[in-house]
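How a chain folds remains the central question behind the approach discussed here. The record that follows shows the chain in one-letter code together with its fold in token form:
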Amino acid sequence: MKTLKKLFITIAKIITIFFTILSIVLVIVSLIKPDWIKFGIEWIGELIKTLGNWNYLIAFTSACIESLPIIGTAVPGMNVMILVWGFWWKSHIILTILLASIGAMIGNYLGYWIGKWYGHEIIEKYGDYIWLGKTEQKILEKQIEKNGFWYIVLGKFHNFTRSFVPFIAWASGMWEKNFWSYNIVGSIIWAVSVNLLGIFFIDQYESILDNLGKIMLGILVIVFGYFWFYKKETLKQYIRDKQNEIERKIENQKK
């Protein structure tokens, strides 16, 4: 059993690193050679159209996998679905949203179930390998306890919270009935929103790629401004707590 857990963590880490590097490369290529990305999107669009009803399975599987802990932080499930829905949505919107919602619900519940039975052990032994240490765990538990509904619902729109909030939810004391209620609402809102985003992206992707540098700069300015003016002290506290956590681990290793 221990060997299987280590193998799972190793595979998850490799997948995470691979998709993280791939995402960085794609961003760089998008800034330097946007025409390459345009060609890639058009090629994917033609492929999606030829897949026909297989797109239902893609929507369901992508929504499920990206909601899983660890792997979901890197697997670009939402990007896949934006493309699927953008190129294939017109006559298939209802069933696609339904299957994506169900996939997201199942993925979230699998994360909740894994957290319920193995959460503390995984974080204790392998947290450093999945970027989820004691400091991050305490922050997530505090936020889930304080804003459980909104963290489950809105957490679907960020890869880290989408993957780890269900995983941490049980440890923070969230009842299973409450989790399922939040999970259903969040998954449906997420599926509909990503569908609409896919429609917008495919209609505007050429303009988006042509102005990607400006868009990214604008996002960075907004994020930096938000943390500087509203979350500066919180960020400083996080850095101090993380440094203390690392120092304690180093001291324990020396003993």
Remarks:
- The chain has a mean pLDDT of 79.
- The chain is about 85% helix and 0% strand.
